[in-house]
Amino acid sequence: MVHVQFRLRARGCRVKCPFCGAPTTQVTDTRENDEGDIIRRRRRCTECDKRFTTYERIELKMPQVVKRNGNRVEFDREKLQSSMKLALRKRPVAVENVEASLDRIESRLLSLGEREIPSEKLGELVMRELKRLDKVAYIRFASVYRNFEDAEEFSEVIRELNVRARPPRVRT
After folding, report:
1. Fewer beta carbons under 10 A from the terminal one: N or C of the chain?
2. pTM for the whole structure
3. Max alpha carbon distance in the chain (Å)?
4. Per-residue pLDDT for the chain (172 aa), expressed as one digit of tens each?
């Protein structure tokens, strides 16, 4: 038995036999793994009658990040995670909450359907998540991201947080 790993682009695409190169094979058995993200197919070549296995995996393509200087880099979850962890250093935020925030950012990027995203937009997504997680981490990240020049810019962000945190007054 031979295991062959293919990246299949679309349902119904043809898989060549890895032994004889014949363009036609038959699927004899199909199974999903427990998580449902991998499909295993047992195949039989119609020419040489040999059997082999293929695996189909979902491959999602994250958009490239366009830096302020115009350079393009691949989206890097680990880099994003380390930036968030740095802002959250010594803050009482559970790792699970950080992971959930990273998942929301990735989902948002994928839902945009764009091939490229400006780093500014990615930074805004991170700031939105940090604001939900921890206000101090939000201010830390904002100070670096927005490149604060003086204490007044810090005060401005703190005032903005305080205004949004207060419940609206009810007139009687």
Report:
1. C
2. 0.59
3. 86
4. 344 444 444 445 678 999 999 999 999 999 998 878 789 999 999 999 999 999 888 777 899 999 999 999 999 999 999 999 999 999 999 999 999 999 999 999 998 989 999 999 999 999 999 999 999 998 888 877 776 677 777 677 777 777 655 555 555 5
